[in-house]
Amino acid sequence: MAIEGALLIGSDIRRGTAGEIRATEARTGTKLSPGFGGATAADLEQACALAEAAFDTFRNAPLETRARFLETVAEEILAIGDILVERAMAETGLPRGRIEGERGRTVGQLRLFAGVVRDGGFLDVRIDPALPDRKPLPRPDLRLINQPLGPVAVFGASNFPLAFSVAGGDTASAFAAGCPVIVKAHSAHPGTSELVGRAVQRAVAACGLPEGTFSLLFDSSRTIGQALVADHRIKAVGFTGSRGGGTSLMAISAARAEPIPVYAEMSSINPVVLLPSALASRGAAIGKAFVGSLTLGAGQFCTNPGLVLAIDGPGLDSFIAAASEALAACEAQTMLTPGILSAYCAGVEALAGHAAVKTVGKGKAGEALTGGAQLFETTAEAFLADHALQAEVFGAASLVVRCPDEAALHAVLAALEGQLTGAIHLDDADTEIAARLMPLMERKVGRVLMNGFGTGVEVCHAMVHGGPFPSTADGRSTSVGSLAIARFLRPVSYQDVPQKLLPEALRDGNPLRLPRRIDGRLTLPEA
Known about the structure:
The structure is a single chain. The protein is α/β, with parallel strands linked by helices. The protein is built from 14 helices and 23 strands. It has a seven-stranded mixed sheet, sandwiched between helices. A seven-stranded mixed sheet has the order 15-17-18-13-12-19-20, with helices on both faces. The protein has a five-stranded mixed sheet with strand order 21-6-5-22-23, with no helix packed on it. Helix 13 (406-415) packs parallel to helix 14. The radius of gyration is 25 Å and the shape is globular. It starts with 5 loop residues before the first strand and ends with a strand.
């Protein structure tokens, strides 16, 4: 299956003419073929027009058709075969096992949302029948259903070339909601993006859906991505990337005549709180496990444990000693792009040069395009005095904050910005202090976990991958798990609408056999 460097605009496959981007082989720094032409304003206009034209047909397609489409996308991705794995490995430097696992996760997400669509519960059907004899005023017939927002723009992520990119969670959940998707591919893995984009394009055709259900654009600058968010036909944005990139898209959205939601997953340092009894009994073991999480994927995860908080004492010393020893054996790892490596090195240098920060552990030195892991420590007083110490260092670097007592631990946690995850390591004797920390942790993070680390995000119904700003633009949502579909839906109420004009899901007799809330009571279709 050849990679042509092509844009996918509806059913069309064409070469972009606005400049060129070329992927870099992550491990060697050499340029990969082919070059990818950037989209023009005319290409963007056509993609948006096709998406708008496709919207009503796609959103009104039977739920089974939409579910089968998601499954077909999954099947087409698997059918690409090893060329997809090899290209993703070349463009990211990630090992085969990681890419194959991510492919499985991507396919699993699509199939999860197929099940969500078939179930129909996401529609949240509510029916309050008319009460014409109610006094002093009759009640009209009121019926509610969730409807899709409209065409969605999705920005591919640098660190997940499959699971958070062309057919990743944002795209899968938008399709499940009934929204056409225009993807702006990430410039770091254009070949991977084209291969997956063609799989989606084939699935659109195989399922008889309108061609504007999906398009894939490349951008040789930032012009097309910005114009995509600004286009009046786009009704929501999914983004995974830097804080600067996410807030820039939020500003574009806010300046529109019709502002739209931007679901941006941005920066997070994911605090790990180590409680006294746990440290005393197994500080060294926690330290070794921590290094495994810190260095996973060269630390290039949004859930990387970038901050450790603990009350000072021998247990914390044991944790740091074990972590330092484990780090010393860690080889430097290839990072995703030269730009990400450069930013990582700058972040590490800033911490190493800070007057109140001490380097307490290092991995093996990096060469060329690799980055070595780093561990630092500071005091609670210094951390609270300098907000810059909260800055995310995207890579295998973490900062330990030594707190003199529980009050200082609370103060540091209270000073943190919003985060994706927060972990607490505890033994039974730590339960009371953990109970005092929990309300604060709940206000700060989207996922609270015990005796573990945030790396590893399960794709399921109870997962929240989101959190208060700036970890995400909107902490009321998630980008992973079945609840992600809610980002691309809005409730619509129908009052005294004739049966033939109602959406089928709202009609008498429950023709789609959906769970429905009638007069406040949840009713399930008969078996």
